[in-house]
Design a protein that fits this description.
The structure is a single chain. It contains eight helices and no strands. It has 190 residues and is mainly α.
Length: 190
């Protein structure tokens, strides 16, 4: 009796196609011997499929994994990104305060009481200079963060900070547009 026919018989038992008694009668052996066949087949399957997997002791990577989570550089990039966003909020606030005073609906309601602030048509140069200074700070923080980010680009899962790139480009464009609209001598004090 070949091992192949024994395996086929045991597989038919495991699939539920035959009973142990039927296989024992067809091969003219005892049911205990058919049970031994099942144990042998399961042991072979375990040896082939389970024992051949690399275990923790056997598998040693050729490159030592040194990163164990976020390191100082990732934290620094995050800090530079947060600093850039904080400066951006400050710059937007300063540009809003520098803008000309426009009468609002509440100003029109209180017109009769004499509490109306005068309408301004000029931009406040102090706030404009502060916003230019803040945009320069954004540009410097983004450049510093991207410089630190470039030092970390050693693995394929490392990525450039989109936040720093976007804020840096917006800050640069804002500086160029403000210098064009308001004049570089007025903003930068030439």
């Amino acid at each position: 009796m070949s091992a192949k026919s024994k395996s086929a018989a045991v597989l038919s038992i495991l699939r539920g196609e035959q009973t142990t008694r039927h296989v024992a009668e067809s091969f003219d052996v005892s049911e205990a011997e058919v049970g031994d066949w099942q144990d042998d087949l399961l042991r072979d399957v375990q040896r082939v499929f389970v024992d051949q997997r690399p275990s923790e002791e056997k598998y040693k990577p050729s490159v030592r994994i040194r990163r164990k989570g976020p390191d100082f550089l990732v934290g620094a990039v995050t800090i530079f990104s947060a600093l850039s966003w904080g400066l951006a909020i400050g710059a937007i606030t300063m540009i809003d305060k520098a803008g000309p005073r426009v009468l609002s609906a509440s100003d029109r309601v209180f017109r009769n009481s004499g509490v109306i602030p005068p309408k301004s048509v000029h931009w406040d140069e102090v706030y404009l200079r502060v916003s230019v200074f803040l945009m320069g700070g954004i540009l410097a923080a983004c450049f510093g963060g991207l410089l630190i980010n470039s030092r970390r680009m050693k693995r394929k899962e490392d990525r450039w900070s989109k936040s720093l790139i976007g804020l840096g480009v917006l800050s640069f464009l804002s500086l160029v547009l403000m210098a064009y609209w308001f004049g570089a001598d007025r903003l930068f004090g030439y």
